[in-house]
Specification:
The protein is α+β, with helices and mostly antiparallel strands. Helices cover 18% and strands 27% of the residues. It contains 11 helices and 30 strands. Helix 8 runs parallel beside helix 9. The longest helix is centred in the last third of the chain and has 21 residues. The protein is globular and about 80 Å long. The chain starts with 14 loop residues before the first strand and ends with a helix.
Length: 630
């Protein structure tokens, strides 16, 4: 693991003293310092940071740097790996040269001290004494702190603790024996605008009531004849009982449906993996020499996950400060990395854990506990609709909307249906749309290209799966971009040069009233601890704030992650946590949200990470409602 001498353990206080070498950095000679601390064993009594015992990433406290204010700095220098006289020379990818042990000694004489102030939040889990790896974060300009909600990830990502099943599968929550019933007396009719409430009792496979919470249930109220649906609220009382609440938003017949997505015991498996594993996948990096000869190695978000932590190439994004690591190729240099692709899925579960996550216990409908109900009209109205215009920064209600006749009606604002091509073209005329994120956002780009024939895709001779993609309507001045976010990205082989970070792209936008930015990411971060995603969001938030500061008329839209995966590599439980981070990161900013989680979980449709056209159409219509409010 690369390390700069640091005079503190991973439990960093507000002030950190670093030793850095004298200047030879070509881009930022004064204003920044790379912070890649060796993780020190807190139990160690040694005061010499060079004696720090390097530990696994899941064995160190995660301190994610949110703001670095340089108080006094004369220079920025290179970083070296290894320690002691026998340390092997390694190449710093930015410096482009080998550094031997003797040269390092000479550099040490030139060293000066830099004092920085660090505002941070710390990731830890209740009931766990296992700290995590310190965050690898470097900024070349001060970052505004994240919202207060993100200061404590433990509170933000809280989930009720579970004692486990002791290896007894029959002691886990069962979708067949768990039941729910109406709360209060049964009524012949309900009033539009009111609520329906029910009580759910979780039981194990022997029919015994559970005494703790932590199950992931999903409840919704459906109107099959009306093609209607709305997500219900599930309140975990943490004693095996759950309160279900459903807003009554349309007049007519309605039916409750409850699904057990994961038992509390299965969630405990997911939590353990998220907490204790540095990753559940790896990636492949492709290096090419001058003659065309190639070498492949393993890459990942941390040097300890490449399989060769003693010999690692690392790459830094200048805009976000994030790092990417690849094992050093056998003969080629670090700066010859040209390609990237998905690697392998790791086996991270036991046989018993696999049984808890098996398909026959996952995403199963509970036996019907509440019969169909009838909702009566109120004041000659058959729908509850919002009358407010859609604008960025509008408060988000819970739920955010509902379906009626297969059309999504936002409860935050008056969303518009864009039924024909002319209405879409009229809205997008003269605008440049920048979509950045994963393939679920690429579906929006594809939908618009298919729906609007005059939007002509331009062949940029790139890997379609990662982009960048572009479509134009020159007559109306419409430009539509999509590109994938940078690594970690599970994809087919793609040129590294095409992988731009979102922070980098946002930094290159002038912005203005004609510019629309749509960000949608999360699905590729469920295979890593939450700190990896939080660190990514910190850089994106700073870039969004800078964009809005220079051009407040820019519209920024955040697409939340949708339902879909049900495995240890990508689960709806992971996605819930990802969306909590997304909401907290951008709260208080002048941005709009499209709640894809609720839009993909409100109708009785099969879950798919890539939703069907009906859902995508409604997501795009909500985007257009923010661009062209009613």
């Amino acid at each position: 693991m690369p390390g700069t001498p640091v005079t503190t353990s991973c439990f960093i206080k507000t002030t950190v003293n670093l030793q850095i070498s004298k200047p030879n950095h070509p881009r930022n000679p004064v204003a920044a310092a790379e912070i890649i601390p060796a993780c020190r064993d807190p139990s160690s009594t040694s005061q010499d940071p060079g004696d720090a015992e390097l530990r696994q990433p899941w064995e160190c406290q995660e301190d994610i740097v949110l703001r670095v204010a340089v108080e006094r700095a004369r220079s920025l220098g290179g970083l070296y790996r290894g320690k002691g006289e026998g340390a092997r020379a390694e190449r710093h990818p930015e410096m482009g040269k080998e550094v031997s042990a003797s040269e390092r000694k000479l550099e040490q004489r030139k060293r000066t001290h830099l004092q920085i102030q660090v505002l941070y939040f710390r990731v830890f889990w209740p009931g766990s004494n296992i700290p995590w790896l310190p965050g690898l974060h470097r900024v070349h300009k001060p970052l505004d702190p994240l919202p207060q909600d993100l200061d404590n990830l433990t509170h933000l990502l809280y989930w009720p603790p579970t004692p486990g099943d002791g290896g007894d599968l029959l002691a886990s929550t069962s979708p067949q024996t768990s039941t729910y019933h109406m709360r209060g007396p049964i009524q012949d009719s309900h009033v539009l605008g009111g609520y329906l409430e029910a009580v759910l009792v979780a039981r194990d496979h022997r029919g015994r009531p559970k005494t703790h919470g932590g199950d992931l249930f999903r409840a919704r109220l459906l109107g099959p004849e009306l093609k209607a649906g709305v997500p219900g609220n599930v309140q975990d009382l943490e004693n095996g009982t759950y309160l279900l609440s459903f807003p009554l938003l349309w007049a007519g017949r309605a039916q409750v449906q409850v699904r057990l997505i994961h038992s509390s015991e299965a969630v405990a498996v997911l939590r353990r993996i998220w907490r204790d594993k540095g990753a559940t996948v790896d990636f492949t990096g492709y290096f090419r020499g001058p003659t065309g000869y190639e070498e492949k190695v393993t890459c990942n978000v941390n040097s300890l996950l490449t399989g060769k932590e003693e010999s690692t190439c690392y790459y830094k994004d200048e805009d976000s400060g994030e790092l990417w690591f690849c094992a050093r190729p056998p003969t080629l240099a670090c700066n010859l990395l040209v390609g990237h692709s998905a690697g392998h899925y790791w086996n991270v579960t036991t046989a018993h854990e696999e049984a808890l996550l098996s398909w026959n216990l996952t995403n199963k409908v509970l036996p019907q506990g509440v019969g169909p109900i009838w909702v009566a009209e109120k004041n000659n109205m058959n729908l509850v609709l919002s009358q407010r215009q859609c604008y960025p920064g509008i408060p988000a209600p819970k739920p955010s909307g509902f379906y009626y006749q297969n059309t999504w009606h936002s409860l935050a604002c008056s969303s518009r249906p864009f039924h024909d091509v002319d209405s879409i073209l009229s809205c997008l005329a003269g605008r440049i749309i920048h979509m950045m994120g994963d393939s679920t956002l690429r579906q929006w780009w594809e939908y618009l290209c298919v729906t609007v024939p005059s939007l002509k895709p331009v062949d940029l001779h790139v890997t379609y799966q990662t982009g960048p993609l572009m479509a134009v309507d020159t007559t109306r001045g419409i430009v539509l971009h999509w590109r994938a976010h940078s690594w970690p990205l599970r994809s087919s082989r793609t040129p590294v040069a095409s992988l731009h970070s979102i922070a980098r792209e946002l930094g290159g936008l002038a912005g203005g009233h004609h510019t629309v930015v749509v960000l949608g990411l999360g699905a590729h971060f469920t295979t890593f601890p939450p700190s990896i995603f939080a660190r990514r969001l910190a850089g994106i938030r700073a870039a969004v704030m800078a964009l809005l500061a220079r051009e407040p008329g820019t519209l920024v839209v955040i697409k939340l992650a949708n339902t879909g995966y049900k495995s240890v590599y990508g689960s709806d439980w992971f996605t819930l946590q990802v969306n909590r981070l997304l909401r907290a990161t951008f709260s208080g900013l002048h941005v709009a949200f499209v709640d894809a989680w609720e839009m993909t979980s409100s109708l009785d449709l099969p879950d798919n990470i890539h939703p069907r056209k009906l859902v995508v159409r409604n997501e795009v219509n909500l985007l257009l409602s923010f661009i062209c409010p009613a």
